[in-house]
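Lay summary

Proteins are chains of building blocks that fold into shapes. Our project writes down both the chain and a compact code for its shape. Here are two examples, one after the other.
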Amino acid sequence: MHIVIVGDGVGRADGLQRELGQALADFGLDWDVRWVGQADAQSAMAGESPVDVLVCELDAGARRAAALLSQLRSERPEAVRILLLENGQDADALQALDSAHRLLRKPLDAGELIEAVESVIELRELLDNAELNEAIGRIGALPPPPKLYIDLTQLMRDPDTDSADVSALLSQDPVLAAKVLRLCNSAYFSAGRVVTDIRSAVTRLGLQNIQRLVLATEAFGGTGEVDGVDREAMQARALATSRLAGQLLGGPSAELAATAGLLAEVGKLLPGVRFALADGTEQNPEGPHFSEAGAYLLGLWGLPMPIVEAVAHHQQPGRMRMSGFWVAGAVHVASALVAGTPVDEAYLRSVGQIDRLPKWRSMGEQLMEAA
């Protein structure tokens, strides 16, 4: 694994090199890490060892970072591209986001870097398809990581965070704030009283529902047209699938199922992917399947592997490496019931869940009636 970290102030002063070296040794990882300044970045990328991971900071300017990331995407699309940000650099980063797979904050943390790279390795073992890796790597309009969702997740890790803090963050995006209020006053959550302010909406919906809504808005909220895709209808299905999948699984894994259900169709927004149209024909029949393409994108964004695996296999849960009914099974049933497509009853028999299908159908009908 050959990693190039580009930046003139990327953390040498605080001993990050020693910290990373010790962490690699502790985990038994034989990684070749090269630290270079902006002036030496081109020669490092053109060296004898192909670059597997490029970490690039913005200190020398967003255009230069964007150019390096874009060059690597073109020359070695399967490589992992990470953008390193200071607090306050979010606006400047917009020029480079389309070419980056991950966003990490400065000062660079050795554990976070190892986790990011290891998760991509695990992703490629899950979706062992060189053509898929290259096809997704070459997409120029790859949706950027969901920034507001990442910020919200970090905010919620603070035990002192309250609804006022979350409301202040959501209020930075008027479009998202409007969607929060719309969902809060829908039949799903309405208690007969209209809510008109964001803080009350956050309290009514709860932080987990807010997280999913933010993720759905960022994942499906692009303005570009995609042939055969109705973004608004897709987002409505996503929210219904998310809610139902969480109910079907229940327990401590309900949140994983809800998030995976929310993102099950996100791959349809990537150019050139294959998916079935309403008339029974296939869009882009020679392209990678949308479920695997979507899972690959989510893995690059850094979502947990159970979510990635569930999105990859939600249409064919029997292909899962593990046995039993878990996140992928719940998302398969929920997405099929919401979309009105056949449920894989043979799979449910194989995992001992077929007797629960009538109850699940009833739950799906009730959910759709309330929508």
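And here is the second example, written the same way.
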Amino acid sequence: MAKNEARRNALADAGITVLAREGSRGFTHRAIDAEAGVPLGTTSNYFRSREKLIAGLVERIGIRLSPTPEDLAARASDAPTRELFADYVRDIVRRLTTHRDVTLALFELRLEVARRPDLAAAMREWQHQALDGDVAFNEAAGLPGGRREITLFHYAIDGLVFDRLTSPIDPGTSTDDIVDDLVAGLLR
């Protein structure tokens, strides 16, 4: 396998773009080569199979959607309240909706996994790690809510973001207001 990490990341980013734009049917090694502007066969040197390519994209999506250390540090000194929890959730939704291609690619990967269960392992592992990380972060920060509430927020945020990126049910309602209502409803 090729070792140039910067090129591997650039190819994964090109794969994210192709997947978001074309869906899984247009998601090929050749399409990624073309999007990245590299010679044919380059993507297959870094990701030998579709399964490895999907695993690489899942990893890259996780990196691109993670909060920055600056975002986390800015809130670290705040008291652990429901309002701080809501601020974290609003930040998650902001990252998911701002990085539209990344989030659409993630939804496409989830649909691909539904069609091809043999690819589910990478997605399932990533989802469980993300949930476990969110629960651990919430507990360490002393924020309200436990594993059950964090799981419910994952479900709700996935639905909210899908709605906002596709055809919103109520486009006139502020996304922040929806998040605040979710927090109030789930953290009684």
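What can we say about the second shape? The domain at 57-186 is CATH 1.10.357 (Tetracycline Repressor; domain 2).
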